[in-house]
Specification:
By secondary structure, the chain is an alpha/beta fold. It folds into 2 domains: 165 residues, Quinone Oxidoreductase, Chain A, domain 1 (Alpha-Beta Complex), CATH 3.90.180.10; 110 residues, NAD(P)-binding Rossmann-like Domain (Rossmann fold, 3-Layer(aba) Sandwich). It is 26% helix and 27% strand. It contains 9 helices and 14 strands. The strands form 3 sheets. Strands 3, 4, 5, 6, 7, 13 and 14 form a 7-stranded mixed sheet that branches. The protein has a 5-stranded parallel sheet with strand order 10-9-8-11-12. Helix 7 links the parallel strand 11 and strand 12.
């Protein structure tokens, strides 16, 4: 099978297209024919081993110090189950699925094996595999932090970095929870963030303060320490006395199959949509990584791995 192999840490060019052996599912695993995957900011961090000194040791222990222990990267996928192990009960061949496999990787390939108890669920019936691949990373991270912040209907929520993979999901999820949403992004992303349901959008390249009198019950920083601005620093001053401020790079997010099923329900109800900036074929993985590393993508960058025969 074709796969993108990463034999050492470094720039996007370390990602090489190779022919590798097709995996076979163990008793508790399913074999998935991948139709699509996505390049996330986390993928780029892992490929380049770009971490702060404090995270160097835990990350090295998790994925390898001198090179990736698992040479096929990729955390998210959407595809069709081709075969199942003898002990598998939840899935059968032909099932259309999508998944988020944080440390197991393996999605940058034509086939992947995952345990049936992975963060793996039936693909939403009303979207394509490419759209499905754009959901788990941003969707599950945004869901985790909004739930952690105990988001409630009627609250005023500010999302900093509202145009990225996590931010575009967070805007839509906050709206679905009944919150009034203010999104923060750069000028060329304002229209997108408005289209996703943000009642107010602040342009951090032009504004250094939140509107006079504005107060927020929940502030979610969807980009973390990687990006800052005078407006970001000032946002926390607009937090209500009992408000909560959360950042995407705080703590270790818990992602579960339940969350993926919850996102599926929202998608099928028309309350959550995939936001795709660019699509690349598997062969152009290095180029996709280069684009994601610019830090200017809107939503998600999707990789088409294989064309699917069905309309779904």
């Amino acid at each position: 099978m074709k796969a993108i192999v990463c034999t050492k840490y470094g720039p996007p060019e370390v990602l090489q297209l190779q022919e590798v052996e097709k995996p076979a599912p163990k008793q508790n695993e399913v074999l998935i024919k991948n139709c699509a995957t996505a390049v996330t900011a986390s993928d780029c961090i892992i490929r380049g081993f770009k971490v702060s000194r404090s995270l160097w040791l835990p990350m090295g222990l998790a994925i390898g110090f001198t090179k990736p222990r698992k040479s096929i990267l990729g955390m998210v996928l959407a595809g069709e189950i081709e075969a199942v192990g003898k002990a598998v009960r939840r899935f059968e061949p032909g099932n259309q699925v999508y998944a988020f496999n944080i440390l197991r990787f393996g999605a940058y390939a034509e086939y992947t094996c995952l345990p049936e108890n992975s963060v793996l669920a039936a693909k939403p019936s009303n979207i394509t595999h490419e759209e499905a691949a754009a959901i788990p990373y941003g969707g599950l991270l945004a869901l985790h932090f909004l739930r952690q912040g105990q988001i409630q209907s009627g609250q005023h929520v500010l999302i900093y970095g509202a145009s990225g993979a996590v931010g575009t999901a967070a805007v839509q999820l906050a709206r679905s929870f009944g919150a009034t949403v203010t999104g923060v992004c750069s000028s060329n992303h304002v229209a997108l963030v408005q289209s996703l349901g943000a009642e107010h959008v602040l342009d951090y390249t032009k504004e250094e303060r939140t509107p006079s009198g504005a107060r927020y019950d929940l502030i979610f920083d969807a980009v973390g320490k990687a990006k800052s601005s005078p407006l970001k620093v000032q946002c926390k001053e607009a937090l209500t006395p009992k408000g909560t401020s959360l950042s995407v790079d705080e703590g270790r997010p818990e992602v579960r199959t339940e969350g993926l099923r919850f996102l599926t329900e929202l998608i099928e109800a028309g309350k959550l949509q995939a936001v795709i900036d660019r699509r690349y074929p598997l062969e152009q993985m290095a180029e996709a990584h280069r684009y994601v590393e610019t830090g200017h993508k809107q939503g998600n960058v999707v990789i088409t791995v294989a064309q699917h025969n069905h309309a779904s």
